[in-house]
C-alpha cells in the first residue's frame, strides 16, 4: 500500500492513456474511464443573474438549494439550502419512488421557501456516470457508491425527474440542466476564480472533470473551444489496469461491495470504503495474532463497523492516539498502547495511499491541460469538494504535496467549493472575518463589563481576586513646575529598553532636556534568570553613565517598569506577573526596586538613588500632564496594552485617606482572564493565546496590542490558505513561522496609501508569493483585525472616561488622554477608529487625544523629581 513516486508516475501515465482511450470514438465503448461530455462549454463570466433552484443527489447529503445570483459586478449571490435524508429504501428502492421522493422534497423545500407561486428553472446535480447528448439530459450508465435503484440504469434521469415533478400541480419547475457534482463544483469555484478548469470530488465517491479541447472530444461535433469532460475516474482499473497495485484487502472489499468489479479506483480512495479497508487489515492482523492478543471481536467481523469518521479521528494530530483507544474500546477490542499505535499506522497507510492515488490521476489531468495549451509551465485552479477532503485532518495537505511533486511544472491552487455546487469564496472570507466585526451593542457590553471590573478592582475584598487589578501607584499629583535637577530614568518593557538622563529646569526657564540611549534586551535575557536580567540592566546603565561621563554622580533614578507591580509606596513594586515577551525567573512576587539595587550592589561600580518605580502608562500621563493639567489618563497601545488614570482617593479602598487623587494603573490587559469576554474571542484568538508565553492570561491585551495582532492575522491567513482562498492553498514555511507577521507590516499593509503592488512586495519580503487577489484579501484581514483592536480599546477607554465623569458628577467631561505613538497607536486606522469609538460609547465626554513624542521616560523623571521634592519636604 505504500506507493513510491515512481509507481505514482506510472499510475499517472496509465491514467493518461485511459483518458485518450475514453476520448476516442472507437475506443470509448471499451474504455473504463468513460470521459463523458457534459455539454458545459465555458465558465461563468460574472454576467449571470437570476433566481434558480437546484437539487444535489449522490453525495453524503441530498440537498435542495435556492440560488440567487446578482449581476452587481461584485459577483455576489445568495444560497439557501435544506438537506433531506436518503434512507436505504430510497437509495436501494425503485426508480419511480426515487424520483417521486426527489420531487416531494423539492416541493417541500419550495413550500418552506414560499416559492410555490414561482416558475423557476432547476439545475439537477446527479453524482453518477451519465451519458449526455445535451445539457438537459442524462442517461445513467451505472449506479455507484451506496446507490442501487432498480429501473433507472440506461434511462434518462431528467425525463424521470420531470415526470415526477409533473405529478405536483402546485409547483412549476423546469429542469434546465443536469450536471455531475464535479462539474457543479468546478462552476462554483469558476465563479470566484476564472482560472478554475478542474472539478474534483473526494467524498463518498471520487471523480474529476476538466475543460478539454473540443478537437479532442470525438464523441461531440465541433472543434472550436472547450467542453467540460466528466472523467468518471472511479472506474479506472475496472479492466484490471491496476490489479498489480490492488491488495488482497482491496479484492475482499470489492467482493463485499454493492458493485463488485466496478469502481475499483474509487474503492481504493473514497470515504465509503476506506474504513472498511482498515477493518479488513485489522481483522487479518488480529487473526495472525499481531493485534489485540489475537482476540477477534464481533465488531471486527462486522462489515462497515469502521467508518471514515473513525479513520479521520484516529489520525488527528494531538488527540489521535486517545481517539484510537476510545474507538477500539468502543468496538470491544481492549487495545494495548502498541495496538493503538499499530492501528493508527494502518489508518495512515490506507489514507495516504488514497491521497497519493488521487494525486496521480489529477496529475495526469493537469499534464493534459498543460499539453493542450502547449505550455511549459501552467498556472491553474482546481475546485474541490467532498467530505474526505474537507474533514480528514491530513488528506488535503498530503494531496497538495503529492500533486506538486508529480507535476512540478503546474502551479496549482486548490479552491474549496463552499455551499457544495452552490457558491462563494467571498462567503468564506466573510464567515472567517465576521466574528471580528463587533456590533455597537457588543461594544457597549464590553464597555460595561470593563466598567464593572474597574469598580470591582478598587474594592478591598477584590484584592488578589480581581482580573483588572487597579494597582495604586502612589503618584498623587502632576508636577507643579517647581521640579528641577538631573535625573536618571530607565524605561523597560516596551519595544526598546532606554536609559535616559533628564535635566529639568523650573521657574521662567522651565524646561526638560533629555538624553537617552537605547539598548537591546536579548531574548535569552528576557527569558533567563532575574539576576541576569537586572545585571544586564545595570550593565546598560554603566555604559550610559560612561557615555555621558557621569559615572561618579549618585543621581536619583526613576524606573519605568512596564509590567503589573503591586506598590506599597512610590519606590516599592512587587511584580505580580510578567507579560508580553518577558519571562525571567525568580522575579514574580519580588520587589523590582530591590532587585535593581542588588544588581547595582553586585556590580559595585557606581551608586544610584532609586526614588520611584512607575508604570509606562503613568510615566506617559505624567509627561503630558507637565504640559496639560487636564491630562489625567495615560494609554499605551504598543507591544502591550494598558491604561492608567487619576482616581479619587475615596474610591481606592486599599489606600488610606480620602482626600485628593492617586493614579491607578488599571492593568486592563488582563480584562477577560475570568472568561467574561470569551464570547467575543475567536478561534484565532485562542490559537494565538495557546501559542503565547502566558496562555489564558492578558486576554484583552492579546486582542488589542502590537505583540499579538500580527499573529492573529497570520492565523487567519493560514486558515484561509487551508481553505484554498489564499496563496493557491499553499501554506509556505514562512507562513508557518510564528511572529513573521510583525505589527509594523500590518500598519503598512492596511494603510490606504499603499498600493496593492506594495502590499505584494511586503508579502514577498515575508516569503509569501501572492496574487493581486491575495493581497486584497490580506489587506482586508489586516484592516479587520486592527479595527477590532481599536474598537475594543475604545470600549475600554470609554469605560474609564465615563467613570471619571461620574466621579466628578458632571453632565459633560473635558479630559485629555495621552496615547503614545507606539507600535499600534501610530496606525492611522487604529487611532481614527479609537477616537470614533470613544465618542460613540462615551458621548458625554469630550476626549482630547494628545499624542506625546517623549515616551514615558520624561514622566518617570518628573515623578522622581516630585517624589524627591516631597521626600525633602518630609525631611525638613
Ligand atoms: C458536496 C457537493 C456535492 C457532492 C459532495 C461530495 O455539493 O455535489 O456530491 O460534496 O462529497 P460527499 O458528500 O460525498 O462527501
Ligand atoms: C515608549 C515608552 C515606554 C513604553 C513604550 C510602549 O517610553 O515606556 O513602554 O513606548 O510602546 P511599545 O514600545 O511597546 O510599542
Ligand atoms: C460517481 C461520480 C461522482 C463521484 C463523486 C462517483 O461514484 O460515479 O459521478 O462524481 O462519485 O460523488
Ligand atoms: C503590562 C503593563 C504595560 C503595558 C504596556 C502590559 O503588558 O502589563 O504594565 O503598561 O503592557 O506596555
TrEMBL record:
Q: Transferase: present as a keyword of the record?
A: yes
Family matches, as Pfam families? Hexokinase_1, Hexokinase_2
Q: Give EC number(s), comma-separated.
A: 2.7.1.1
Q: Which keywords appear in this protein's UniProt record, sorted alphabetically?
A: ATP-binding, Glycolysis, Kinase, Nucleotide-binding, Transferase
Q: Name one GO molecular function term.
A: fructokinase activity
A GO BP term here is: glycolytic process
Q: Where is the Hexokinase N-terminal domain?
A: 2-191, 430-626
Catalysed reaction equations from the record: a D-hexose + ATP = a D-hexose 6-phosphate + ADP + H(+); D-glucose + ATP = D-glucose 6-phosphate + ADP + H(+)
Q: In which pathway does it act?
A: Carbohydrate metabolism; hexose metabolism; Carbohydrate degradation; glycolysis; D-glyceraldehyde 3-phosphate and glycerone phosphate from D-glucose: step 1/4
Which InterPro entries does this UniProt record tie to the protein?
Answer: ATPase_NBD (IPR043129), Hexokinase (IPR001312), Hexokinase_BS (IPR019807), Hexokinase_C (IPR022673), Hexokinase_N (IPR022672)
Please report the stretch or stretches of sequence annotated as the Hexokinase C-terminal domain.
Answer: 198-425, 632-866
Q: Which GO terms describe its cellular component?
A: cytosol; mitochondrial outer membrane
The protein's enzyme class: transferase
Q: Family membership, please give it.
A: Belongs to the hexokinase family.
In its UniProt entry, what is this protein called?
A: hexokinase
Q: What is the species of this protein? A: Ficedula albicollis (Collared flycatcher)
Q: Which gene encodes it?
A: HKDC1
